[in-house]
Structure formats: structure tokens, C-alpha cells
Amino acid sequence: MIDLTQPSEYQNWQATNDNVMGGISQGHMTFDGQSSRFSGELSLANNGSFSSINRPIESLPAEVDRVELTLIGDGRLYQIRLATWRNGSRITYKHEFSTVKGQQQKKVFYLNNFQAVFRGRLIYDAPLLAARDIKQVGLLIADKQPGPFVLNLIQIQFKALPKSD
């Protein structure tokens, strides 16, 4: 579990914005006294269009089949992203989700519903996402709507179905 209400958790996250490709969007992770906050401003200037944050995670048990994200949104569309490394190759998998402004939500994402992507394009022949291969979790905003964004993050849990006897 990643507890984003801990004052030091935001320091484990790294921002990557569209300035790596010439854009001028800005985004970062901070702590607001109650939760970690992914916020900034999305710009479409210079072909910009995204801001993201990510952090490494410890190896997950193979039985993990879903991710649960507790958040307070701003009404915008985001992606949760999971990155894997297999046989020396990195593959990123995404799942989009909408938020309701000012409302706490718990979003549940099943691993088998994630889509493999590379620079925004779907990869159709990628291997299925397996929990044991996940090395990084992240969030991205790329909804093509310029302006400020803010996503308050409370908790990320990796869960498995209970074992039956």
C-alpha cells in the first residue's frame, strides 16, 4: 500500500512533463498537509499536452489482480499508469479514469483492463500485464484541456482476490 497522507510520501514521486518534447506544461507532486497533491497547469503550446508523475514500487505478489486508488478529483480525465520491465524492455500500461470535482472517490482498476502504450499510441501485441512485472506506478493528465489541474491522492493499494480453500 502507498499511503499518500504521509508527509514524506510525495518525495518518492518524480514529475515528467511535456517539456521533454518542447511543451511548456508544468506539474509536480506536493504535500498539502492532508494528502499528496499532483497539480500544475496543462498547456497545448509547442505541441505540449501532458504532465505526469511516477514512483518505483517493490515487487508485487503474482496474485495481485487490481489497483485501488483513493483520490479527490477536479473533474478532469486522468490515467493511472503501470510500467513493467521484462527481458530488458520497458512497457507502460494505462487505464483512464474520470474524476468528480471536490468528491472523494475510490477507483478500482483490474490489471486485465489496462492497455499497453508507447508515447500515447496503443501497442496491440504487448504481453498481458502481470503484477510480478510491475516496477513503477504513475499518473498522467493528457486530456487536451489547457489550464490548471489538481488531483489529491490519498491511497494506492494493490489487491488480490482472496484464496479459496
Topology order in helix (H) and strand (E) letters: EEEEEEEEEEEEE
Distance between the termini: 25 Å
Structural category: mainly beta
Q: How much strand?
A: over 45%
By DSSP, the count of extended strands is 13
Spans of at least 5 consecutive residues with low confidence: none
The best one-word shape is globular
- Overall residue-averaged pLDDT value: 93
Largest sheet: 7 strands, antiparallel
Topology of helices and strands:
Elements: E1 2-3, E2 14-17, E3 26-31, E4 36-42, E5 51-56, E6 64-72, E7 77-86, E8 89-98, E9 104-110, E10 115-118, E11 121-122, E12 134-141, E13 147-160
Antiparallel strand pairs: 1-13, 2-5, 3-4, 4-13, 5-12, 6-9, 6-13, 7-8, 7-12, 8-10, 10-11
Essential attributes:
six-stranded antiparallel β-sheet; globular; single chain; 165 residues; mainly beta; 0% helix
What does this structure look like?
The chain is mainly beta and 165 residues long. Helix content is 0%, strand content 54%. It has strands at residues 2-3, 14-17, 26-31, 36-42, 51-56, 64-72, 77-86, 89-98, 104-110, 115-118, 121-122, 134-141, 147-160. The strands form two sheets. A seven-stranded antiparallel β-sheet has the order 2-5-12-7-8-10-11, with no helix packed on it. Strands 1, 3, 4, 6, 9 and 13 form a six-stranded antiparallel β-sheet that branches.
